[in-house]
Amino acid sequence: MAEKKNILTYAGLKQYEDELQNLKVYRRKEVAQKIKEAREQGDLSENAEYDAAKDEQRDIELRIEELEKLLKNAEVVVEDEIDLEKINVGCKVKVFEIDEDEEMEFRIVGSTEANSLQNKISNESPVGRALLGRKVGDIVDVETQVGVIQYKILEIQRVS
Known about the structure:
- By secondary structure, the protein is α/β, with parallel strands linked by helices.
- It has three helices and seven strands; from the N terminus they run E-H-H-E-E-E-E-H-E-E.
- It has a five-stranded mixed sheet. Strands 1-2 form a two-stranded parallel ribbon.
- Strand 6 and strand 7 form a beta hairpin.
- It starts with 5 loop residues before the first strand and ends with a strand.
């Protein structure tokens, strides 16, 4: 079975590449130094610093593995080539939530980049799925846990 492609914007790709570089170049060395210093303290059987450093090392290696796998299967959305006639991954979308009488703005991103605190919604989320392929002026019904939410699409932009 083929692995799922991780859809990323260029900014998301850069963020994950930078994190991987930091982990491999700096954090590995930091933890190796902590382990060395803890070993020099003698008996490892009751050495909390040694145990903590080994746990940190394991976490770093797991994250490196996770990032390498994510990047290996990455498919980058080229924002300059996005068709602004309809909503795609990589777009910034301004919508009007009809029931709440409120304008909102979302960035449609791949699931690995989603972050509701930054208004980055996944293309796989209920809202993201409902918006994909829609055009300015469309009214979209989104089935959520709290019921149906209606959005009117006001604007589609490239992320600047």
